[in-house]
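== Polypeptide entry ==
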Amino acid sequence: MANNHSAVVELGIGAPTRADVVAVARDGARVVLASDAVAAMEHSRSVIDALASDPQPHYGVSTGFGALASKHIPFERRAQLQRSLVRSHAASSGPEVERAVVRATMLLRLSTLATGRTGARPVVAETYVALLNAGITPIVGEYGSLGCSGDLAPLAHCALALLGEGMVRDADGELMEASAALSAAGIPPIELREKEGLALINGTDGMLGMLVMAIHDLHALVTTADLAAALSVEGLQGTDAVFAADLQALRPHPGQRDSAANMRAVLDGSPMVSRPEGFTRVQDAYSLRCAPQVHGAVRDTIAHATLVAERELASAIDNPVVTLDDRLESNGNFHGAPLGYVLDFLAIAVADLASMSERRTDRFLDVARNHGLNAFLADDPGVDSGHMIAQYTQAGIVSELKRLAVPASVDSIPSSAMQEDHVSMGWSAARKLRRAIDGLGRVIAIELLTSARAMDLRSPIQPGPVGSAVRARLRTRVEGPATDRYLAPEIAAAHDMVLDGSLLAAAASVISTAGGELR
């Protein structure tokens, strides 16, 4: 794990930013609690302490949980109640969830604690801070959350580590018992009091963390898809006339406007999109001509998901919750529907973006549609297969993305003896979106690899300044056309450059020199 200890994220009673979440989850930024958060937590804890001695039952303070909410718990057994809650709910199974996802989940639960609406003591939040800063990451299995009553099982595994129980990985990624990791880091395990076990597990933090990271990744990937589409137009000797600003303004979707602007900037000054005398093709196929419309719809979907994420980041999710006028009230704010819907919506958009990319790649390989290039872009078709199977790889990924686009949020399985009779499945929606985004990056990488090869095969005609710069950057890792080579490492190299942003940076550098920018 990268540890950027120079970066510090301060958590107060206000919302963390999306950049804060990414910095802590992926870059190891340190976390501190602001004084206003500590004061808010101390105040709300006084509310819980007052209710603890009240003979009237209060959910989460002096009662059981879920379908057992009607059972009164005597004072001397309430610490056991909170421990038992965490232990019993740490029931996940399956492959280990990625470190960045767990750290994002921890940060967002900590953020809600810092609002002072949960009634947890400051020491609970301070121990969470200590775990994050020490790089101690609880082991969480992929299965266990229904996305209602919060991401219960994932958050319970995180809470268990605060007690010095369960399994974790240390800052070096070594698997060990939580008790040993906390001892090595000098962190005392906590003893939970009334309400605190519930406060630690009752939130939408896992699905929100994955949504925030998905938004971060998709902003870069949709712009890279604009770049890839433009280079495909170039390599297929299409036209850039359809991307003109006045044509796009006739349908004023902001995402479409931005994608078209990117494609115009990439294609500016390219000899490959000029029209030689005698040219008879008046318009390109939809996968080229309609790229701004599809890519733009993806951008607008991301914008909607961002709005939902920002609202959720500003939320205090717990049940019951300490209100601003010091009441302890049950509520349904833990339901993950708002997140589940947009996570599924993004998976649909990702699948369609990848599908269009694959269609452009396929055009390069077919002599009936590639306008003068060798079959499959092979050096010697028949002896060589060129990029034939690279497109198979794309097609296999796209087919998987279509399956992943089936919404998880339309499903619901009743639980807790029918007390929790409608659930969001938002965690499942988030997990499949992560897989979809991984596939999208690979599909775009193959399109870029293919369009660069096509440009080389058009010689002596050369691409424009941006296309030349991107191709040159790619050629630092992948050789130009020749007889067939081991193709998987070349796909992997292109994928690496999509993820690290170096191909996008090569394009942006040329465009900025000309006074423009990628959006």
